[in-house]
């Protein structure tokens, strides 16, 4: 029976291979269909050849001319062999092939006078049969059964059966829409039965919404999920920097691009002309307005959801008017401890310099514009226009910008055993700015613990600490007037040639900058002192108790504490302290020091009821009460005409005091909230929510506002 099957297969192959030309084929497959060498047909048994320094392919062609053999091989592979010299008389084909092919190739001579040459191992062909079923044991028809790495395949019939001739060490790939693709190694087996598992639909993914989660298919509002894996590939200090272009309707901008500078995020356009349009951030259930998101390492984030419309944001009341960004950080998982370390290092540079006039172009323009003044300024002392062709042009972009390094290191330890899960991590970020003497440093650490106390009770705590430092000239900062003092205006507007003889064409031409209503930008970046040191601690804890299967109470409490120190100092070589500028003449050497503190306490209590009725009806109800208290304070001092500028900020007390600030504010917020979700077979959905906010910021006649949605 096997002999008959092989003969049928050989005749079938002969029909397919009627053209006997040198073709690039997949030879292990052809070899698999061949038979062992035996008695051959009318082809000669010996050959006489005399070829010197010939290519192996030329020798094979000559062998075919002298015989009835048909050769099959990969032309590209055979051409990689060294040239050979063949001088034989009455030599067998086997010996000639061994000599010219060496150890790199193998060959097989079949009964029908075919010579199959291959660089791979000869494989046997076997027939594999089997049945494809689903998890319930029912047959699955039209399943694609493909040989991995080739186009050869078959499909299962109505009874789930399939049959396929394959190499004995091939791998079969079973795939069908709605099921998980399976790969099975043949390993010389002739019967392989496969059970396919249903694939989890992306619509079954869980989406985090306000005070709860729902399946993606049951979301009624406008909620977008961010692909955190793609976001974390970007080498950025804050997750906000990587949000741009990843979520529809979310616009991300930066005022100046300085390392550590604030990022402006606007969801679905600006809602206010005069007030802040930033969204509300909810990090691990803790709502925060205008937080320092540099305090959170992007590598710590598990998921990000963006709530855009009134239906999804109403549960957060007035603070959700500009949209809500919900962030969930990573937690430990049950299993052996896992240590993870990753780092990246790179360099930044200004990749698009402004194209400015060179010295010759600038002087020629000045002559065309005002020849009298140009001759007096640039062509005195016997100079001519042609002299400026070879004169080095002054381009301050090279003096202000630089190639700067940045690096990030992150290490974490996570795991869990029994009823306890934990995650501990720390990171260090160093980013120097492309403008000299600017940069951002951050040290960050986080601890997360979750504990199952009993069958119905669990609790956990999550703490994050960050210490960061921002320093350097702010490019967008303007001292007075529209252009006066703007850093990059002074860089781009400065003339590339000077008509005066000076020792230093940059340091000795302050008058030229002042003529342009600017200030020497090189001195600015070297001498201006701008520094902000921030420390942020965020800690929140939760306790959750289940009353049976359907009712669950969750109580959370948290604290956010921020301290920052802002230093500003302008010595006599800066735009605001130089005696050459109006501001410097009025104020002299000056500086300021400001401290800011913020403490926010939050308590949230929610009761959730979820039940499925008759398999088709799902009811999810939420009721809750929250209370928040925020205290902020700011105090500092500023002084002009500081006599000893070498002391920097420490010498403010010796100057003339101009401002002493001391402010303090407290506001409270109390809220009641409720939401009802109903789903019928995930086809018919209904959502209604209501939040009532009572805030000390509201007027005494209208302390409460209501935010319904449905």
Could you state the oligomeric state of the chains shown? single chain
Query: Overall 3D geometry?
Result: flat
What is the CA-based Rg, rounded? 39 Å
Helices, by number, come to: 15
Number of strands: 33
- Average pLDDT reading: 82
Distance between the termini: 73 Å
How do the strands of the widest beta sheet line up side by side?
Answer: 22-23-24-25-26-27-28-29-30-31-32-33
Helix content: 10-25%
Low-confidence stretches: 1-41
- Amount of beta strand: 35-45%
Q: Largest sheet, if any?
A: 12 strands, antiparallel
Protein structure class: mainly beta
Description:
- Mean pLDDT is 82; it is low at 1-41.
- The protein has 15 helices and 33 strands.
- It is mainly beta and 710 residues long.
- Strand 24 and strand 25 (439-452) form a beta hairpin.
- The two termini are 73 Å apart.
- The strands form eight sheets. Strands 22-23-24-25-26-27-28-29-30-31-32-33 form a twelve-stranded antiparallel sheet. The chain has a five-stranded mixed sheet with strand order 15-20-21-18-19, with no helix packed on it. Strands 8-7-10-11 form a four-stranded antiparallel sheet, with no helix packed on it.
- The longest helix is centred in the first third of the chain and has 15 residues, at 2-16.
- The chain is flat.
- 15% of the residues lie in helices and 43% in strands.
